[in-house]
Amino acid sequence: MTDIRFHINGKEHIVPGNLPLTTSLNEYLREQAGLNGTKVMCKEAGCGCCAVTVTNLPADSKTLETYSVQSCLTPLYAVDGWQISTVEGIGNQSEGFHPIQERIAKFNGTQCGYCTPGMVMNMYGLLHQKAHITAQDVEDSFDGNICRCTGYRPILDAMKSFSEDAHIPGRKSIDIEDLNKNLCPKTGETCPGTCSGRSLDLKVNGACWYRPTSLEELCNVMKVNNDKKIRLVFGNTSSGIFKNEGPFEIYVDLHQVKELFWFETLETDVKLGAATTLTHFLKRLRGHQEKPGFKYFSQIHKHIKVVANVMVRNSGCIAGNLMIKNHHNEFPSDIFTTLEAAGANVEVFDVKTSEKQTISLLDFVKLNMRNKVLIAVILPRLAEGIVYRSFKITPRWQNAHAYVNAAFKIPVEEQVIQGRPSIVLGGINADMIHATKTEDFLTNKSLSLAVVKEAYCILRDELVPTESPLESSSKYRKDLAGGLLYKVLLGICNSKSQRLQSGSENLHRPVSSGLQTYQEMKSEFPLKHAMPKKTSPLQASGEAVFVNDMPKFQHELFAAFVLADEGSATIESIDASQALAIPGVTHFFSAKDAQHNEFPSPLAPRLFASKEVLYNGEPLGMILAETPALAKEAIQKVKVTYSEIRSPILTIEDSLAQNKEFVNRRKTNVVGNPDDAWKSVDQIVEGTVSMGSQYHFYMETQVCLAVPSEDGIDLYASTQNSDNCQAAASHVIDQPMNYVNITVPRVGGGFGGKSLDSCTLAAGSTLGAYLSKRPVRLSMDLSTNIRSLGKRPPYKATYKAGFNKDGKVQVIEIDMMMDVGYHEGSSYFTVYSLSYMDMCYYVPNWKVTGRSMMTNKRFMVAVRAPGSVPAALICESIFEHVARALNKHPILLKELNLYEPDQTDLSGHVLKNCTVRELWRRLKDTAEVDARIRQVDAFNQENLWKKRGITMTTCKYGMIYFGSGHGATVTIFARDGSVQVSQGGVEMGQGLYTKVAQGVAHILGVPIENIKVRPNQGIISPNNIVSGGSIASESSMQAAIGAAEILKERMQPIREKFPDADWKELCQKSGASKVDLTARFLNKHEMGTPYCNYHTYCVAVTETEVDILTGEFQIRRVDIMADYGESLNPMIDVGQTEGGFVMGLGCFLTEDTLFDGKNGRILTDGTWNYKPPTTKDIPIDWRIHLLPDTPNPSGVRSSKATGEPSIALSVGGLLANKMAVENARKDLFDKDDFIPVVAPFTVERTQQSVGLSENLLTL
């Protein structure tokens, strides 16, 4: 057999066996089939943007199954005989949108739109699997889909609108028949599924792909190829974790080996075929969890629901997960942990002897599986009276590997352990499975407080966690394991103390909900109308084109950067000869090939390191090749030799110790007379605040495409700053800027990360195209993106605050050291942060100093709200500390110190229209804050091991009309009156195009459907300032309005001459009268005094709950009230608020960047270790209100910008969690202390802040 055959969207695809056997379905869809609606990002099954649905016939079934998978890890050769559905195939603008696509667009569930196709296809698979879904089904099914823009709430609402129990406006179930389930792509009739069961025997480039249909065939394949390296393939999901295994000579697809798919229930046990998918395993567990002896299945079911994500569980099987544990004993397999504790066995088939052997999982882990196949798992019936519990404690609520996973099987009767318990732990070290010493001790023990304490100590003492910078601390894992044992034993003892009872329970997360209230200005419709983005349907159907979706040009080459693997070193030589010897690898370029490798400010300092490497991950050169895979292979072959390797400076402390401050960039702001103020205050507190870095995590990684034209370069860039990219591209090849014609189609998320770093890609791709004279596409993979480009600056601040007994803060002194990376240009962020330090609190005397520290890291760049995020953490922490010192609730203390109108802020702005007190008053009343404070206090008094916190936070965000402004060109087509706009702002999900269209439609008095906003093009809209600082939407809209007003004025004489003409006729007569129907306008707002034009104010109430024993937490409720003036589009502005807030939760609670201390390499360079929030990390109850009747006299059309302020509010999540911990410390130690503030305040840091020991345990 020489080909594979399958159907995509009803069309048969025949693939000759000439593509590499490692080709993924995603690569085929995008590079061969031209179906670019399916996106690509992490290639780890961790983000979900690559989701498609597949339909196939399982080996043990006569019924077709349809489900969602991540195409990035699905092997192409595994889909022979399958039917694939992509987002374009289920609906599009020419054939009509699918209800899911319509619904997510209607609910404003898209912003940048890069994740949207994956969301749609995941939901499509869910509806195929379950016709009548609940809201809980929806919330449980989006654990594998990441969205950085929306904050998830509108996506979940859109999907819940298909459920039968959600209280969602517009809820309507879908007729499952509308999904065309089980239709044969050949005949259109119900598919018999005979296509997917055939054997395969393919040979490609010396490697073989087999698909046996029986165990006998499988054995024959393995026997014949006994001397070769064999890969047994099912879901292939392990390749998302262990990426560098192989190469393999033999691939064996197990999907049709019937003997691996079976299920049998006996009196003594339940048996499952080893190829049972985790999704089917869950169904089997749930179907038998009420039966005597198998009730422990409910615990395993709950545990496996948090293994990876839905799409991984759809693809992966039991055997696959267990085989990872067999090959990598250090892997914290949840399947292994839960089954081993239960006493499960496995059946192993020996290929050489053709014999089956039943062995324990403990023996299986140590077994050499060469020439063996795992064929079944056997779960035993447990006797009555056995307590079985399992746990998985993770950095976020879902789709994360465990800090520690654990399972306990304890036979007990009346608090006496009957025999030997089973205690299994994962995440400790490669050898640790059973806590044997603890098991020994607890055998036949009568449980008492003394026994529980001793067991806790024995367990901690016998654990020897592996030390690794990517693992949580050894102490935490030991404490956590002890805490989980205590939870189990506490539950067995069934304490009569109500304060202790919740300690044995896990946190329970109910279905989330949201509420949004806002005012619309109907007199100005369609402006100020709450409406979804115009392009949402196209994003939902995958038809919205991003740079990397553009079709491949003839003779196009693919570029990849060669990165430094040392953090501080001198380059002796770079040898690319081995790389260039690979067929299909065409060029290697480095600093010597650029006309100008160094760039002037404000561009990135340089393209390639030429002599000195300043950070690990710095580009040293660039490979060009015929395919992306070849380019990736080639960069591994480039040999870099260093003549001197130095220890990298990676922390502020190291930089300080080595006197690496950029002293010339130190800045001190003084307000009032702080020296005198210290003499008159009643009390002083001092403390520290520190924060790590944050990666932007835009879903579309950085990409540029450079195409030689007859007299220049056509550059297609994903950038927030087309002007800078054009300048960098022309500079690197020493050509004038008009040599480069730049287009920005749209951007798949930016958050500041594509304002400066995109210049590196623009210069690199342009250099490649200029020198090779061929089109060059430079698209970064996620790891390269994270390693080589900038992030949010870490910082450490010390503070001192003086205040009176009445709670009025009189003086604050702050000394902040910020890690700006290797280049002093990033010191701007230090200075910028100082201006935000007061947030919304009036303090008459200040001294704030900012120091910029050099480290061996990429220069830091803007990340959403680069000034207010660090300032919010510092400022809010200070006021929380003062409240603790005065024994006041922080909410009451902060309220005393809020700005009044007309007071002057830290930077010298007179706050003429300050609404923060009004926001605070209204929100405090709307959110029932006083009553909830009492409820939180009551809960904390009634519970020792669960604690809650509630606080309020503020943001005063200064909006600045900086730089050259934004221009717009509006054209009316005389023949039909349709309108086209080209403007200088970049659409990256913030709704800029929609607001521009709303403004033009309002001025011209035409339906918004008449308006099309075209991509940003340098030839039409040049010389624009970066789309950043939240102002691009309003600035671009004002430019478009200005141009529209010019046109309206030009057409006025024609209107007066023909007062009854409709719009189309008016345009025709204007054209006939030679009226110029194209106008350009540049929005030239001047900066305010001293620099801000106005401030956007917002306030939030955040309530959280913490499990003191584990550190897990959940955001119970968030209420936000914001003054956005007269919102240009309330639906879009609410979406910006939600997205910003959730990104802030990541910054303050879950996201951290870790480095290898020896060579400076970033270790958190993928979805396996870097954890932005997902759907269950958002507030459970989330209410957002826009303040009505507050026009902004200084803003565009009385509005305010909205993109960044809300991120600062989410510091409340950290502070509320910290309050919960401090309440626990007061109960446990009788200490009323204030814990130093560290962000991110992760699950680990939360638990470790408590300071638990065995002496504190009680029954």
TrEMBL record:
Domain FAD-binding PCMH-type positions: 202-384
Keyword Kinase tagged: no
GO molecular function: 2 iron, 2 sulfur cluster binding; FAD binding; iron ion binding; oxidoreductase activity
Domain of life: Eukaryota
SUPFAM superfamilies, sorted: 2Fe-2S ferredoxin-like (SSF54292), CO dehydrogenase flavoprotein C-terminal domain-like (SSF55447), CO dehydrogenase ISP C-domain like (SSF47741), CO dehydrogenase molybdoprotein N-domain-like (SSF54665), FAD-binding/transporter-associated domain-like (SSF56176), Molybdenum cofactor-binding domain (SSF56003)
UniProt-annotated binding residues for [2Fe-2S] cluster 2: C112, C115, C147, C149
Leader sequence residues: none
Comment on bound cofactor: Binds 2 [2Fe-2S] clusters. Binds 1 Mo-molybdopterin (Mo-MPT) cofactor per subunit.
Active site: E1204
Binding positions ([2Fe-2S] cluster 1): C42, C47, C50, C72
UniProt keyword list: 2Fe-2S, FAD, Flavoprotein, Iron, Iron-sulfur, Metal-binding, Molybdenum, NAD, Oxidoreductase
Cofactors (names): FAD; [2Fe-2S] cluster; Mo-molybdopterin
InterPro entries: 2Fe-2S-bd (IPR002888), 2Fe-2S-bd_dom_sf (IPR036884), 2Fe-2S_ferredoxin-like_sf (IPR036010), 2Fe-2S_ferredoxin-type (IPR001041), Ald_Oxase/Xan_DH_a/b (IPR000674), Ald_Oxase/Xan_DH_a/b_sf (IPR036856), Ald_Oxase/xanthine_DH-like (IPR016208), AldOxase/xan_DH_MoCoBD1 (IPR008274)
Sites where the protein binds FAD: L374, K392
Family that this chain belongs to: Belongs to the xanthine dehydrogenase family.
Protein name as catalogued: Aldehyde oxidase
Species per Swiss-Prot/TrEMBL record: Elysia crispata (lettuce slug)
